[in-house]
Design goal:
By secondary structure, the protein is mostly helical. It contains 48 helices and eleven strands. A five-stranded parallel beta sheet has the order 2-3-4-1-5, with helices on both faces. It has a three-stranded mixed beta sheet with strand order 6-8-7. α37 crosses α38. The relative contact order is 0.05.
């Protein structure tokens, strides 16, 4: 009979899941599904990356379908990367990713070995911010896979993601997002619901990104008959057909029934068919496995149970160690389990024939015995030198309340995971807390660790609630201040400014119990809370207090905390020169500090922002690039740094470069759950689309942040959001709506004593106020910006703004001309061109048409260089009105397609990619992010009509010869 043969396959763990037949389709009942999967493989080298999700119940044939795809990929000489999740490895950070990519310090691939060392704690991660190594590892994984894709197309298989750790899920999502243009097919398999929330989110994100899904249905009755016919070599008779119907179309259960009947002598063969000689079988695969176990010798059964507790594919040496036997003895005693087709041999591993076989044996072990075995397994494996994280799941499953030793181990493992996967840390310390008996001496310390883990994992609401609960009851003194510091951080992240201020004031009411470091950290965050909630003067006073404490300690890190808070408070009030002075000092102190991980904000980023506010845009971009070079900045503050540099491109009029950067910044902000930066990206892109005359695009973008301007409270970056929304309203012919938006934001900022967004809001508000007969508003705004100019006399655009607004109110052409001259000293597009337009309008009214035409020509050149076609059209109309025809439209516009259609940045990206550099390498060379490079490549592919790097390289080589 065919039942006894080895069905083969590259991983025999899965051979029983479905049956390969020697026919054209290769699988029974999966013709359409296989054709779809092979279609994705066909497109692998021809177009963008793709994702295929294969779902279905256990035993339905997911892995066998994937095996067919893998076999075909290898026959085409494609690179195959394959790994899977395991039921007891959810506490091993990047476990699935490591298995798929071979991430081990012992790997022969130096790139994979470097990531392996990083995961093992030997990759130089001491320079990174705590909790941020997860993002660094993800970026290294993306770069590795992209490098492999550049060599040849890659099929990446990630099986059983329902058991995967959260860090691996993040890696899978990042690969599909960042390598969307690479020759990469990602196949994900999972059981059907219920699924962990993290897996549901991954599947939703993959679907939203265009991933395709296959849900494997049960085999039909005819297909089950075909399966039996293949197995038996003849058609099944009526009694056997009736028995097979109980399998519910599950090929694994159907095959297991046939094998059981054959082994027990329950089949009879006639000339035309094979039929059953019995009418009953166990009701489930689990029952069938239980019956098989009854026939095994005691030592074999004991080893099987130990193996099941260790996992579904485990080392024979680990089984032997837990069983306290030699590997040779363990191998001999497991022989009958292999004969019973419960196990397979794969290298030196003990591998269950199928996960359902493993589950049946595992569940057959009584729960108390399972706990004991898990506990013994953890102790034995750690005594043998295993990583605590690799056995933490056994501790979680093998310990009960009151197990203090297990709680201590779990806390130790949590500290090891803190730099790799914050969600794993949280799970481990929660379990440690649950193990401690009531009133335990370490209960408060563990509670504090839970709060810190919640903060790292981003669960800030629960972190603050937990901290408040402990602080609200009697607790040991040692955790009081650490909990208060954590609470302040959690409240800051939730923008709960009033509560934050109250906590700091209460904590510092008795300063003798708070150390200088904690005082500075609390005061700095109180300063930010006051500043961003509308009291920057109070924020400045608190920051100055923090600086006094920091300087008394002579600790440069503490001084950076205080100086950063002082910079923000003074900048919001419009004292940009003073803010820059503090930023320069903070950056210098940080550069010489030995403790970058303790810094609150990326110092080079903050310096760049202060330089930008002072019109020193070139220096600002240098600082932003220094921040991108620094791992501190490229992790926690990547999205803010990307956004700041993209905003600089926008402000300079380099809009072709600004848009990809803004889109990359939005993507990074979304990954870091930072909606304020997402809205900021949308706002700047709205302005660009409005300036270009793409009002439909602008409206679509603006609608995504419009709600933030309609609530009772405005966000602290409402100035740029309002500027964008108002510009669009005016372009759509709604000056009243634009005026109302601007006036509301202006009044809110005035009440907050914030002058930060004067340059955005004031010119349009004054112009609209005068046009709508609201001279009192125009005068109010002009008075305010004149007062603000006294606070930053060295900043050209601030002085220009004051003269511009006063000139508009008084219809004073001389003031407006001087304003244009000052704006000309700054490279900022909107400020310069806008000042020229306003001055030209006043000059024209005075009959000074030639001077007006000169200034209009200056504005037109800036708008055309940026591609601001709509604004350029407005200026051309102005030129015609003063009798100076604008002549031929500027030569800024390139062809829509072909090499000449590419921007300078797109050409640079194209050349570097054609040289074989990965997105990550191009990003490092150009001081941008891989997200930005990917966005540029999308535009390049569309303009050149190519679908991959090979086609791009051919165009590049032809074009630059």
């Amino acid at each position: 009979m065919a039942l006894d043969r080895d069905l083969g396959g590259e991983d025999t763990r899965w051979v029983a899941e479905s049956v390969v037949v020697p026919s054209a389709d290769g699988l029974i009942g999966r013709t359409a599904e296989l054709e779809l999967a092979l279609g994705e493989l066909d497109r692998l080298g021809e177009g963008p990356a793709s994702v295929l999700v294969v779902e279905g119940e256990a035993g339905i044939g997911k892995t066998r379908l994937v095996q067919s795809l893998v076999g075909e990929a290898r026959s085409r000489d494609l690179r195959v990367l394959s790994g899977g999740g395991h039921p007891f490895e959810r506490t091993r950070p990047f476990g699935l990713a490591a298995s798929a990519l071979g991430l081990s310090a012992r790997s022969t691939d130096p790139r994979a070995a470097a990531i392996g060392r990083l995961l093992a704690g030997r990759g130089g991660e001491a320079s990174a911010t705590p909790g941020d190594i997860q993002w660094r590892v993800v970026e290294e994984i993306v770069d590795l896979v992209e490098t492999l894709c550049a060599e040849r197309p890659v099929l990446l298989v990630t099986e059983d993601v329902h058991w995967a750790d959260t860090a691996s899920l993040l890696a899978v999502l990042s690969l599909t997002r960042q390598l969307s243009l690479a020759p990469l097919l990602t196949v994900v398999t999972t059981r059907s619901s219920p699924l962990p929330g993290s897996v549901v989110r991954l599947l939703d994100d993959l679907a939203a990104g265009g991933g395709r899904s296959l849900c494997l249905a049960p085999l039909t009755a005819d297909e089950v008959t075909a399966l039996a016919t293949h197995e038996l070599g003849a058609r099944p008779g009526p009694r056997l057909t009736a028995l097979l119907a109980k399998a519910g179309g599950n090929p694994l259960w159907a095959t297991a029934m046939l094998r059981s009947l054959a082994a027990d002598g329950g089949l009879s063969r006639s000339a035309t068919e094979v039929d059953a000689t019995v009418s009953e079988l166990p009701a489930s695969l689990g029952d069938l496995v239980d019956r098989r176990l009854r026939d095994l010798p005691g030592p074999t059964l004991e080893l099987l149970r130990i193996a099941a507790v260790l996992g579904d594919a485990v080392s024979l040496r680990d089984v032997a160690a837990v069983a306290r036997r030699s590997p040779a003895e363990a191998a001999r005693q497991l022989g009958e389990a292999y004969d019973a087709q419960l196990l397979d041999r794969v290298d030196e591993r003990v591998v269950f024939r199928h996960q359902l076989v493993h589950d049946a044996i595992y569940q057959q072990v009584p729960a108390p015995a399972r706990r004991v075995l898990h506990r013994e397994a953890a102790v034995t494996l750690m005594a043998a030198g295993a990583d605590p994280l690799a056995v933490a799941d056994h501790l979680v499953r093998g310990s009960e309340r009151g197990d203090e030793e297990a709680a201590t181990w779990l806390r130790h493992a949590a500290r090891g995971a803190a730099g790799q996967a914050p969600p794993v840390t949280l799970e481990l310390v929660r379990r440690a807390e649950a193990l401690l008996p009531g009133g335990h001496r370490d209960a408060d310390a563990v509670s504090a660790e839970v709060v810190q883990a919640l903060l790292r994992a981003g669960d800030v609401a629960e972190a603050s609630a937990r901290a408040e609960a402990v602080l609200g009851r009697p607790h040991v003194a040692e955790v009081d201040i650490p909990l208060r510091v954590a609470l302040v951080s959690a409240l800051a992240l939730q923008n709960r400014a009033d509560e934050l201020v109250a906590v700091v004031e209460d904590s510092l009411a008795s300063p003798e119990r708070v150390g200088p470091a904690e005082q500075v950290v609390m005061l700095a965050q109180q300063s930010w809370a006051l500043t961003y909630s509308g009291a920057p003067a109070e924020g400045e006073a608190v920051a100055a207090r923090a600086l006094a404490v920091a300087e008394a300690t002579e600790d440069p890190v503490l001084s950076v905390w205080a100086l950063t808070a002082l910079q923000v408070a003074e900048g919001r009030q419009g004292r940009f020169d003073a803010a820059l002075s503090h930023a320069r000092r903070a950056a210098a102190l940080a550069e010489g500090s030995a403790g970058p991980r303790a810094l609150p904000l990326q110092p080079q980023l903050m310096l760049g922002m202060a330089l930008f506010d002072c019109d020193l845009v070139g220096e600002a971009r240098t600082a932003f690039r220094a921040a991108l070079d620094d791992e501190f900045g490229s992790a926690w503050w990547l999205s803010a740094t990307l956004m700041a540099d993209a905003q600089a491109s926008y402000a300079l009029g380099d809009w072709d470069d600004a848009v990809p950067g803004l889109m990359a910044g939005e993507q990074a902000a979304r990954e870091k759950a930072n909606p304020l930066l997402e809205w900021q990206s949308l706002a700047y892109r709205t302005v660009i689309a409005t300036g270009r005359g793409e009002l439909g695009v602008a409206r679509e973008l603006a609608d995504r942040f419009a709600g933030t301007l309609q609530g009772e409270e405005l966000p602290y970056n409402a100035g740029i959001l309002t500027f964008a929304a108002a510009a669009l309203e005016a372009a759509e012919g709604n000056p009243h709506g634009a005026f109302d938006l601007l006036l509301r934001c202006w009044r809110v900022d005035a009440a907050r004593e914030s002058r930060f967004y004067h340059r955005c809001l004031a010119p349009d508000l004054v112009r609209l106020a005068l046009a709508l007969g609201r001279r009192e508003v125009a005068g109010e705004v002009a008075d305010a910006v004149e007062a603000g100019a006294d606070l930053a006399p060295e900043v050209p655009t601030v002085r220009s703004l004051a003269l511009r607004c006063r000139g508009l109110v008084d219809a004073d052409a001389a003031s407006l001309v001087t304003a244009a001259a000052l704006a000309r000293r700054s490279p900022l597009l909107v400020e310069h061109a806008g000042a020229c337009e306003d001055a030209a309008s006043a000059l024209a009214k005075d009959g000074r048409r030639e001077e007006a035409a000169t200034l209009l020509g200056e504005a037109l050149a800036r708008y055309e260089a940026a591609g601001a076609d709509a604004w350029a059209g407005r200026v051309r109309a102005g030129l015609r009105s003063v009798g100076a025809p604008p002549g031929v439209k500027g030569s800024r516009h390139r062809p829509a397609t072909g090499w000449e259609s590419l921007t300078a940045t797109e050409r640079t990206v194209s050349v570097l990619v054609a040289e074989g550099l990965t997105n990550g390498a191009v990003a490092r060379r150009m001081y941008v992010s891989p997200h930005t490079v990917n966005t540029h490549l999308r535009h390049v592919y569309a303009k050149l009509g190519v679908s991959n790097r090979v086609g791009l390289a051919a165009v590049v080589h032809r074009s630059i010869e």
